[in-house]
Amino acid sequence: MTNGRILPAVYQTKQAGVSRRSFLMRAGAAAAATLLVPSAEAFTRSLSRERILNFYNPNTEEDLTIACCIDAEYDARIIRRFSYFMRDHHSNKVHYIDPALIDLLYAVSVLTRSHGTFQVISGYRAPETNRMLRRTSRRVAEHSLHMEGKAIDIRMSDTDTRSLRKVGLALQRGGVGYYPSANFVHLDTGDVRSW
Question: Residue 8 belongs to what domain range?
């Protein structure tokens, strides 16, 4: 088992002209409206604090810890380590992972009030892996965002997948897939949609 601890976070990401802080503030307002947090104000206060995100990949038996603060930028080293951690475990291929996924997971951890570990079921998928998985399951998309480094399949050690789905839907920041029989949630940074 390898252990990677990364401090501090430094890499600025903007999506569609929306800053990371603005995204999370809007997410807090949306979550408050769906009764996920007491108030948008309480959520906004939580943004100023550093938050530790813990990851475990059961496929590779690796773990990774990232210290994030939405006011700090992600450093290229973090993105490289996160991309390596999220590599295709079938082919061992590494692909650049969209830093907006880290912001999304940060928001999920805040809104669920979790201090647990994200268990990464699937991160990046090489095209050949995606084709192989499509042959065994009709639920695998032909043009999956996993192949672009923009999707992650997760569960959490201290939060049920139903709650993860609810938070993902409230965030309105990409795709949310719910797989209760396999006990995981798909999150991506693509168009807003759900299944």
Answer: 3-194
